[in-house]
Each structure stands twice: as C-alpha cells, then as structure tokens.
Amino acid sequence: MRTRIKICGLRDPGHAKLAAQEGADAIGLVFHAASPRAISIEDAMRVAAAVPPFVMTVGLFVDAPESEIRRVLERVPLDLLQFHGNETPGECERFGKPFLRAVRMEEGVDLVEYAHRFSSAKALLLDAHVPGVPGGTGHRFDWGRIPRELPIPIVLSGGLDSGNVGQAIRETRPWAVDVSSGVEGQRGVKDPAKITAFIRSVQREDVRPA
C-alpha cells in the first residue's frame, strides 16, 4: 500500500507547488492565530490557487468559532477539515465537509473509544501530547501505543522527518503521514530541500521489499 503524504503549515504558494510536484497528496493550511504557521485567509487563497488537481487542501482549526470556520470556507476551497481542539463529533460534522480528528497521544488515551466516538471522521490524526500546545511541536510519541486494529484509518504525525519516517511507516503502517516542523529550516518557515527529502523518504519506504 502506498503511504499518503501531507505537508502541513504551508504559507508559500511555491512550497505548495513543490510539495505537489514531488508527490504530496495534501497540503495543510493552519487557521490558528497562536501557531507560528498561522495563515491569513488572503494568503491561504493564494496557496490554494497554486495547488494542482488531485492534491487536497486541508484546513486546520483549533476550537475555532463556527462563524470563523464558515468565513474561511466562503473564500478558501478546502477539501478536508482537520480539528485539533476539543471539538465534539457534532461540531466537526456541522460543516458538511469530510474531516480528520486529531488525537494528542497523552497517557490513558483510548484510541478504540476515540475511533468509535468519531466514526464519521475520515481518519484519526495521531500527534504527540505537549501540554498547552495543540500540535506542530516536533515531538514524537511511542508508536507502540497504537493498536494494530482500528476501525478507522490513521494519519501519523508528531516529530516526523526524513530520517525517521521510514521507521515510523514500518512500525505503524499508517494510511498517511503528516509533517510540519520536520520540514522547516526555522520555526514556521518551510525548507524546500527538507520537503523533497521527506517525500522521497516515504516513497523509498513504500518500494522497499517486505
């Protein structure tokens, strides 16, 4: 199975175009003002316009008011929503868009229960737990905590980079991997060479003999 690739926190149309050309399946736009990767609606429109056909545009939100999300949706052509806060299933579903539900992997998280509670999600996105930070921390979690069988696909995130993503895929066999800080030259600023290196590392793992 081919591992899908999402590059998150993009703010430069050129980086979005590069990611797509190298083989990314999705690019992520962060609509959370507290993030160093936050993007304005106007800039998000420019990035989305640079994304070619058959590559998804994903909007990330953290406990955003409904009105704010609808304002983004009116102007930015998002294919998928990603929720990183304390949103309930109903709050995720009310926009009529497919969505990912992020899970911060703190101690005691029951992924089976999460999967059943958010059964309408397209996937669970698993990220490291850092108190007070909803994501993009650059930390990884213990991949051994992921159950082998879940009734919903998983997107693996948290501390991935070109050096460890191959091991991550071998150990967890996720539907997709998601990277943000692992392809940055400095906090919040993407490095084109690192984007390319990450995508090629995933591609190499996918063709490695079993």
TrEMBL record:
Catalytic reactions on record: N-(5-phospho-beta-D-ribosyl)anthranilate = 1-(2-carboxyphenylamino)-1-deoxy-D-ribulose 5-phosphate
Domain N-(5'phosphoribosyl) anthranilate isomerase (PRAI) as annotated: residue spans: 5-199
Isomerase listed as a keyword: yes
Record keywords: Amino-acid biosynthesis, Aromatic amino acid biosynthesis, Isomerase, Tryptophan biosynthesis
Source domain of life: Bacteria
Record-listed E.C. numbers: 5.3.1.24
One MF term in the entry's GO annotations: phosphoribosylanthranilate isomerase activity
Pfam families per record: PRAI (PF00697)
Pathway annotation: Amino-acid biosynthesis; L-tryptophan biosynthesis; L-tryptophan from chorismate: step 3/5
InterPro entries, alphabetized: Aldolase_TIM, PRAI_dom, RibuloseP-bd_barrel, TrpF_fam
UniProt record, GO biological process: L-tryptophan biosynthetic process
SUPFAM superfamilies listed in its UniProt record: Ribulose-phoshate binding barrel (SSF51366)
CDD domains for the chain: PRAI
Family: Belongs to the TrpF family.
UniProt name for this protein: N-(5'-phosphoribosyl)anthranilate isomerase
Organism for this UniProt entry: Usitatibacter rugosus
Gene for this chain: trpF
